[in-house]
Write a structure and sequence with these properties.
The chain has helices at about 5-20, 35, 50-55, 60-65, 65-75, 85-100, 105-115, 130-140, 150-160, 165-170, 170-185, 225-230, 235-240, and strands spanning about 190-200, 205-210, 215-225. The protein has about 250 residues and is mainly α. It is elongated, with a radius of gyration of 27 Å. InterPro entries: Kinase-like_dom_sf, RGS, RGS_sf, RGS_subdomain_2.
């Protein structure tokens, strides 16, 4: 009996079954309920230390640079009966203008001006300076990429001054803290299940790996001790750590 061939068949069968997590036609994804339960958000009482630690975090870091914080801040601004409807709408319009094709910019610019920069509009953003409004209206036909640069700067300053504090007291920020708590939890080897080796090279090998909590498949590269020793990988690591990397160490 060809044991090696049998092991390959078994590995392939397990791999195909696991692919159900990304290909609905193959089968249902395999999830580990115990591991999935560990992805549940904690009670907000467990996040109080995070709340205190984040008290000094800057607005730009939380609400602009971090995708999760940015998304939750936008949801806070766009919530029903929110007093920030106008600045939230302007922010969205500026993003759409920045993503628009050059041929569409002039139309997008005029739409944003009519809706948020005209005094007669119900969504007029009164916090913008008059000279900024005049400049944008005068240069709207040029439809440059940086047409709304000053508008965006003043918009973010306004949001930091008026909405940043209320956001920190809202359920949206509590949800942000819950996700940050979960993000800080260690992810160990037990979270993943290796199925088969897809390829080898260098100092390691690439395996088909499944995330046990979600059932999703990934290509995972890992080091192989035998290959490290055979290719003098440990010497390369030590020399690199010392600041001297001998090119001869890479020759097999």
């Amino acid at each position: 009996m060809d044991i090696g061939g049998l092991e390959t068949v078994v590995a392939n069968s397990a791999f195909v079954a696991a692919r159900g997590s990304i290909d609905s036609q193959v089968g249902a994804p395999v999830r580990d309920k115990k591991m999935r339960d560990r992805l549940r958000l904690p009670h907000i009482s467990q996040c109080e230390e995070l709340r205190e630690a984040s008290a000094g975090d800057p607005f730009h870091s939380t609400c602009l640079q971090q995708p999760l914080g940015r998304r939750l801040f936008r949801q806070f601004l766009e919530a029903p009966e929110s007093p920030y409807e106008a600045p939230a709408g302007l922010w969205k319009a500026l993003e759409e203008y920045g993503e628009a094709e050059e041929a569409e910019r002039r139309q997008r610019a005029q739409q944003a001006i009519n809706r948020f920069l005209e005094v007669s509009s119900p969504l007029f953003c009164a916090f913008l300076e008059e000279k900024t409004l005049a400049k944008v209206k005068a240069e709207a036909n040029q439809a440059r990429g940086d047409l709304f640069k000053e508008v965006e700067e003043e918009l973010l300053q306004h949001l930091e001054a008026q909405a940043w504090g209320p956001f920190q007291d809202s359920p949206f920020f509590s949800r942000f803290l819950q996700f940050k708590w979960l993000e800080a939890q260690p992810v160990m080897e037990e979270w993943f299940l290796d199925f088969r080796v897809l390829g080898k090279g260098g100092f390691g090998e690439v395996c088909a790996t499944q995330m046990r909590a979600t059932g999703k498949m990934y290509a995972n590269k890992r080091l192989n001790k035998k290959r490290l020793k055979k290719r003098r990988g440990y010497e390369v690591r030590e020399e690199g750590a010392g600041g001297v990397l001998d090119a001869a160490s890479w020759r097999g």
